[in-house]
Amino acid sequence: MLNTRFIFFFVLFDIIVGDVSIEWDKFKHKYNKQYKIIDEEIERKQIFIENHNEIHSFFTQELVSSRRNTLKSYTSSFKSTREVKDLPESLDWRDKGVITEVYHDEVGGIVTAVVDTELVESLHAIEAGKLTSIRLLSTIHGCF
């Protein structure tokens, strides 16, 4: 068990260090860096690794915080919830007359256009109180 953990740790360490070493080699090649003394290269590589880790740490923190802030602003734009009473046991939109006939595969399987067309038809019927069929080809042409 101990040997397995040691091997796992060693492989993981090698992957992490190997990745940074590849970045170091790319950096040296790109900026034509050559070091005559091995001690200087070791020192410069250590500085590179520290900077590399700092940059990646910053990006990770920045992305997480920006995602968190985006989520807060996104959810705050919703209307507040309200208690809804007297909900029916079930709801079938076909009974409400806001679902059109199922489209047959007229255009070779463009599912997104079919779903979009049916969605627009249903939303229009709910808002306007009148069911209207939209030509599927019009939706497809609008998508491309």
UniProtKB/TrEMBL annotation:
Signal peptide: 1-22
Sequence ranges assigned to domain Cathepsin propeptide inhibitor in this UniProt record: 24-58
Domain of life: Eukaryota
UniProt keyword Transmembrane, yes or no: no
Keywords, sorted A to Z: Signal
InterPro entries referenced in this protein's UniProt entry, alphabetically: Papain-like_cys_pep_sf, Prot_inhib_I29
Any one Pfam family match given in the protein's UniProt record, by short name: Inhibitor_I29
Name under which the protein is recorded: Cathepsin propeptide inhibitor domain-containing protein
